[in-house]
Write a structure and sequence with these properties.
Elements: E1 12-18, E2 27-33, H1 51-64, E3 67-73, H2 75-81, H3 83-96, E4 104-108, E5 120-123, H4 131-152, H5 160-163, H6 169-178
Parallel strand pairs: 1-4, 4-5
Antiparallel strand pairs: 1-2, 2-3
Helix pairs in contact: 1-4, 2-3
Length: 199
């Protein structure tokens, strides 16, 4: 059973990211402010529910939320500032995109940087504990999946439509066979034995 609020503040925003462990594509974050009376039996951590349910939930969350924001941080910046900093930056940018300023922020995970002096709490496995973080995890995942489906059309041999850039056996074999694209994160260990690439 997901909890509604962590704090006593009325405007509590949840934030989460998707794509942190991927070899290609952006890390994507979302921030969501839900109304106090929000209820949905399908809502859970995006990793716990099917793609079909995530796609049902996406427009519901967008229509009922007081405000939501989504932000991508792309592979060049990930390579430049590292994935942890990129994940936090994506969450900050998602909060930037909210039309309503939150009074309190709850963050999935255990790392965050202060945002505009707003009090916050990091919560390990927060996406399976709090509604607003679960909602943010759904939006982050679905928006990132849409982006990966789009770039799949450009490079179908990596099958990003299916693996979304994660390090599957098939994805690694395609990297070994075809090399890397501009969408790959060059700072990541792209192959287990890290073969040399010709950039």
């Amino acid at each position: 059973m997901l909890l509604k609020n962590h704090s006593n503040y009325l405007l509590e925003c949840g934030t989460d990211e998707a794509g942190r462990g991927c070899l290609a594509g952006p890390v994507t974050a979302a921030a969501v402010l839900l109304p106090k009376d929000f209820k949905n039996v399908l809502l859970n951590d995006s990793k716990q529910i099917s793609e079909k349910k995530r796609n049902i939930l996406k427009p519901i969350i967008e229509s009922v939320s007081l405000s939501f924001g989504v932000a991508h941080i792309f592979q060049e910046e990930i390579d430049s500032i590292n994935i942890l900093n990129a994940s936090i930056l994506a969450m900050h940018k998602a909060i930037d995109a909210l039309h309503t300023t939150p009074e309190f922020i709850i963050v999935d995970g255990n790392r965050f940087k202060p945002y505009n002096g707003i009090p916050f709490e990091t919560i390990v496995k927060g996406d399976s504990k709090y509604m607003s973080i679960a909602a943010a995890s759904i939006l982050a995942k679905t928006y990132r999946d849409i982006y990966m489906d789009t770039i799949h059309e450009e490079y179908p041999m990596y099958n990003w439509k299916k693996n979304k850039g994660y390090p599957t056996k098939e994805h690694r074999e395609a990297i070994q066979k075809y090399g890397i694209t501009e969408y790959h994160r060059k700072s990541f260990k792209l192959l287990p034995d890290q073969l040399t690439f010709n950039f």
